[in-house]
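Much of our argument rests on the idea that a fold can be written as discrete symbols. This step matters because it turns folding into a mapping between discrete strings. The record that follows shows the chain in one-letter code together with its fold in token form.
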Amino acid sequence: MDILRAKKGFICDMDGVIYHGDRLLPGVKEFVDWLYREDKKFLFLTNASGKSPKELQQKLWRMGLDVDESHFYTSALATAKFLDRQNPGCSAYVIGDPGLYNALHDVGIMVNDVDPDYVIIGETVNYNFEKICRAMHHVSNGAKLIGTNTDLTGPSESGIFPACRALVAPVEITTGVSAYYVGKPNPLMMRTGIRMLGVHSEEAVMIGDRMDTDIIAGIESGLDTVLVLSGVTTRETMKLYPYRPRIILDGVGNIPG
């Protein structure tokens, strides 16, 4: 724990680590206060694509946490950055929430339901049969399939819910085309996060509740890893994976010394 507390940079997942739904998890306020008090560099790096950094900042503010929006980075922003570098000025058919649409708009990617270059899918409650059919049609006609992240499920106050990969799966299965997923554990998103912190990977730690995205992303990016049991992973399900986090905690409230 002394080695963990001495780290200069902290990359934290949000769902299952900072909050469940609209409920702040125990010890989070004390953890964030500690980050500020100890002058740590920190970033909330989330695979959720539905909200913008400003919306996430306001969500935490309503829960009693005052964190500047510069401390947030989402898979929607990572997806927009990836496509802007790969194919500037491209167009896309998009299934997602406003955070994804806004991130794409900000880099000049146009929404196109006629002959898009890409089909991009992120989390959304506005998901239906018609949208699946449109996405299938475009992918079958040559549009490249992009998923904002590989999360199959996400945590909420009432249990788990289907996340991005579950929404992409029908299009993959029916077209035979595999999506390219941009969010964690893709190193593209992790490397951007480390650059935003301005610290070396050996001086940073990844804190998350998922073995298949957060922990493997940290390991493959050269960061120390902390698994918190406040989200989807339990001590039993952790044993199913061939890799291990460096530290296991009940929640981030255990970190402040």
The longest strand covers residues 41-46. The chain has two domains: 2-47+184-254, 77-181.
